[in-house]
Amino acid sequence: VSTQSTGEEAGAIANTLGDGQVPQIPSGAKLLKPGVPICKTDENWPLLTVSKGIFDKVAQGEGTSALDAAADELDLGDGDGAWGDDDLDLDDEGKLGGSDDGLGEEDGGGWDVEDDIDLPPDLDIAVTQVTGTSYVPPAIGTSTAKRWTDNSQFAVDHLMGGSVDSAMRLLDDQIGVVDFNPYKSLFMEVMGRGAVCLPGLPCQAPIMAYPPRTLNDNSPKTTLPRKYQKLTDLVEQLQVGYQLTTQGKFSEAAIKFHSILLAVPLLIVESKEELNEAQQLIGICREYVLGLQMEIARKELPRRTVDDQIRICELAAYFTHCNLQPVHLILVLRSAAQLFYKLKNFKTAASFARRLLDCGPKQDLATTMRKIIAACEKNPVDEHKLQYDQHNPFVLCARSYLPIYRGKAVEKCPLCTASYLPEHKGSVCTVCKVSEVGKETIGLRIFPGQFR
Known about the structure:
Layout: H1 7-17, H2 41-44, H3 54-59, H4 63-73, H5 144-151, H6 155-160, H7 164-175, H8 184-192, E1 196-198, E2 207-209, H9 231-246, H10 250-263, H11 272-300, H12 306-319, H13 326-342, H14 346-358, H15 363-377, E3 394-396, E4 403-405, E5 411-412, E6 419-420
Antiparallel strand pairs: 1-2, 3-4, 5-6
Helix pairs in contact: 9-10, 10-11, 11-12, 12-13, 13-14, 14-15
């Protein structure tokens, strides 16, 4: 306050603070004022020129005086010429003379119009766009991903377009999928391959591009996404599963075959030959998953009692009836022959040894099997009765691991066609882990010719 030379205010403040409380003002102190702005906003602010219409002027009271002035300046005069008075034939009282049939005696029905006009219901009336200064926003277009789902009946194309709901409905109708948890990671991978993210300008969102299946296909009615996977890719993964099985890594091999089984419904093949190969691939994966699951369960069983030993031998015997590669079938038959020989079921052990020799094993393994046959022929009997008849054809229940002999009722999985006893109908398949056992479906659809 002292720097502004207002002594009265400075004295009042000093009296309020008391002696010794007033701060000392440095010598040379002066009031600091802000600088004058270079650009004044009142002169440099952008203005938008807007023209006023006649109604705006009237609302503001500007147009009424002009209209009234124009009306006042109009001189009606006597109306000479064509505006002259006609002979109205007035009577003494100023009323129209003549007939009583005047205009005033009308009923008011002169404007009656028949409204019951029969118009065809299928008239297509074009809506005229408003022109001028009014703005009509354009209609929202259809995205490329939406066109993919409209143009395709394959579940994988719907996933590439991001339509998970429609893809799930298609898989449910085709192969009876009811549990989509095993498909979650695969669905996310497919959806991630449907679009390409292109970097844009700095601080701007990226641009999403949707590569088509055919490079020059730009028609909205035929455009489709690129293929997620080929049949040859799954065949290469099948070889990896074979190697894991040979190495004895049963858990890893079962996971690999199961992943191949789930990927087959997301294929798109180009010919009937590839369709048959895809169905054969499903059968191979089913046999290996079922057999490896039984082998894993067999190794986890206890071996304390005779009944435990019998159940272990039964699972080993069932494994030999899975459709495996010769190199793997030899390993399974060798294990079964040794287990049955230890159980003293010599007759069945000899049959497994003979089946192994028919597969053409190596020399040392063939010699061992011949010794087992020679030992079993000395006493060709089975000491224990098992629930296994090698001479009666059967399929294996994938849940209970019990044989279902020919002629008995059986339920199938819509995807992997694994067999089940009737009491397991409605449950989730233990092989593919996604489809409902015994559900009526239209079947696998991965070939365009299947929709014709």
